[in-house]
Amino acid sequence: MALPSYSYHQPGQEKKAGSDCCSLSCLKFFLYMYNIVLLLFGLSGLAVGLWTLLDRGQFLSLLTSSTYHISGILVLVSGVLVVGITVLGCCGISREGKGLILAYSGLLAFTIIVQVAVGVTAYLYRAKVHQELVVSLNTTFTQEYGMLQFNLTTEAVDDLQTTLKCCGAESYEDWRNSLWWSQDLKENNKVPDSCCKSVSRFCGVRDHPSNIYYTGCAHKLSRMASDHLLLIGTIALVICAVEACGVVLSATLVRKLSKLDD
Fold this sequence. Notes:
Elements: H1 11-54, H2 57-60, H3 67-95, H4 98-126, H5 129-144, H6 151-164, H7 179-182, H8 217-261
Helix pairs in contact: 1-3, 1-8, 3-4, 3-8, 4-8, 5-8
């Protein structure tokens, strides 16, 4: 007569549970490590956004389009959002809360859409920035420079010419077609003093190449803006790729937690 088995253990189930726990621990570890990497990318985006708006803001206020500024603001906002998302993700992982992890995954997906928009816009706008600058700077230099109602513009142009070592929109000769020239605001100068290689009062009376810069500001400023837009677009798309990995990892973790609950 066969004796009934009174075993209190089910080895198959124990092995499965142990395997699930190990897999869950690995997923949590990978997500923690991922969040550290994502935090670094978020802080880099935050830094680039602040640099775009603060360090280059005075020069690029001469742009007629707001595309550059909007791109900088979106990168800044995305950086702040990514930092917040990493905090949410760490809370969800430590508590093993499916709701928090789903919210984390959803916010990552939303940020991916924003980053793609920023990256594509930055790359496309690079091709247009030079022509826009030529038109914009010509208007600014010829119609606004030296006018009492445009004091901030005058300061921005002087700062631009001194910092970038340039003169005029496309060349130093642009000043001859300006209101600053025609309304005799120039006094004896042929170009503003900020065009001089060594700036001093009335140094602009001589327009010899040994004394002033001949290169127009549109060329240098457009190159600077183009390089900066390339940086914005590249960072946005790299962060986008990193965030896509986070969506996959978080979705896998939610699925694993759901299996353990069952």
